[in-house]
C-alpha cells in the first residue's frame, strides 16, 4: 500500500520509500525525501517563484533519466504553476513554493534546475551565473584557479560573488543582479569567459567544442540565456553517490588541492548549514547587493 502523508495540509502519496536510489552507498528514496525535507529552509528560497525543470532518475543514476519541464499528467490541482513562453509556444511549469510542493517533487526523485529569472519577470535575470566545467584530466582544482581570477574580475566590476559546487565535477559562480534582459547578461558573461581565456590560455576555454576542452576549464556563460537552467543550490545530483550542489566559501576554494575536498553529499549539508549559520548563498536575496551590468564593454 502506498503511504499517504499530510504536509502543510496537503495529502501526498509517497511510494517505494525503501527503494535504493544510490547503490554505491545504499541511500534510499526515503532518505532522498528526508534530505529535501531537512534542507527545505535553505533550498526553498532558491526554488521559489522560478519555473522548475526536473531531471528525473526514479531508478537511480544508473537507470533511465529524463528531463521534464511541463507540468506532468496527474499532478495535484493544488500544485503551483506558472505559464512560460518558449520557442515552441506557451506551456506551464511547476513552481516549488513550499514544503508540500517540494515533497511532491522529491517523491519523483529529481534534480532541481532553475533559470536565472523569476516567473513574474521572465527573461529578466536577477543573478549572473558562470559554470566552470573541467575537461579531464583537469578537475575542480583547476576550476578553483579559474574561479579566483573570475571572482576578482567580477569584483572589479562591482559585483558580489558567491560560489557553490556543481555537485558533479565543477563549480558555479553567482552574483546578484539588478533585473536585466537575459541576452545582455549572456553577452557580458561571454565577454568575461573570453577575457579569462585570453588571460590563461593554458587553463581556460570559452567554447564548448569537445576537442578544445581536455585539461582545461570550460567557462560556460550560456546558462544565463533565458531558455537555460542551472542546477539549483542544494539539489541532489544523479551521480554514483548522493552528491549535492553545495555552497562553498572562498577560503575553501583557495585551499583546494584535491578534488575530494569539494565533494559534499547529503549527510554533509545539515552540519555545514549549522556551521556557517545558515545559507552561504543567502546574500543572493539581498537586493541591496544587486548590481547593474557595466555599460559599454565587459568592463
Automatic annotation (TrEMBL):
Keyword field contains Cell membrane: no
Gene Ontology MF terms: ligase activity
InterPro entries: LigD_pol_dom, MtLigD_Pol-like, NHEJ_LigD
Protein origin, superkingdom: Bacteria
Protein name, UniProt field: ATP-dependent DNA ligase
Residue ranges constituting the DNA ligase D polymerase domain according to the UniProt record: 28-279
UniProt entry tagged with the keyword Zinc: no
PANTHER family: BIFUNCTIONAL NON-HOMOLOGOUS END JOINING PROTEIN LIGD
Keywords: Ligase
TM region positions: none
Amino acid at each position: 500500500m502506498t503511504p499517504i502523508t499530510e504536509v502543510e495540509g496537503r495529502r501526498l502519496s509517497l511510494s517505494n520509500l525503501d527503494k535504493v536510489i544510490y547503490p554505491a552507498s545504499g541511500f534510499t528514496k526515503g532518505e532522498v525525501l528526508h534530505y529535501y525535507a531537512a534542507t527545505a529552509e535553505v533550498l526553498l528560497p532558491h526554488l521559489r517563484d522560478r519555473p522548475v525543470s526536473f531531471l528525473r532518475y526514479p531508478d537511480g543514476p544508473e537507470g533511465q533519466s529524463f528531463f521534464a519541464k511541463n507540468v506532468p499528467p496527474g499532478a495535484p490541482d493544488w500544485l503551483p504553476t506558472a505559464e512560460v513562453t518558449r520557442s515552441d509556444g506557451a506551456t506551464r511549469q511547476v513552481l516549488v513554493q513550499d514544503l508540500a510542493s517540494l515533497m511532491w517533487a522529491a517523491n519523483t526523485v529529481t534534480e532541481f534546475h532553475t533559470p536565472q529569472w523569476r516567473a513574474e519577470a521572465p527573461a529578466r535575470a536577477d543573478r549572473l551565473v558562470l559554470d566552470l566545467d573541467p575537461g579531464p584530466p583537469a578537475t575542480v582544482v583547476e576550476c578553483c584557479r579559474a574561479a579566483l581570477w573570475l571572482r576578482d574580475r567580477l569584483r572589479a566590476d562591482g559585483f558580489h560573488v558567491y560560489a557553490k559546487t556543481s555537485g558533479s565535477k565543477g563549480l558555479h559562480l553567482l552574483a546578484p543582479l539588478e533585473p536585466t534582459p537575459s541576452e545582455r547578461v549572456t553577452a557580458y558573461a561571454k565577454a568575461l569567459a573570453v577575457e579569462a581565456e585570453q588571460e590563461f590560455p593554458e587553463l581556460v576555454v570559452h567554447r564548448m567544442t569537445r576537442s578544445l576542452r581536455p585539461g582545461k576549464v570550460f567557462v560556460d556563460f550560456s546558462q544565463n540565456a533565458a531558455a537555460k537552467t542551472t542546477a539549483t543550490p542544494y539539489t541532489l545530483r544523479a551521480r554514483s553517490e548522493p552528491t549535492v550542489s553545495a555552497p562553498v566559501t572562498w577560503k575553501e576554494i583557495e585551499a583546494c588541492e584535491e578534488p575530494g575536498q569539494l565533494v559534499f553529499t547529503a549527510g554533509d549539508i545539515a552540519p555545514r548549514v549549522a556551521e556557517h549559520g545558515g545559507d552561504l548563498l543567502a546574500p543572493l536575496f539581498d537586493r541591496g547587493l544587486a548590481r547593474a551590468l557595466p555599460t559599454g564593454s565587459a568592463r
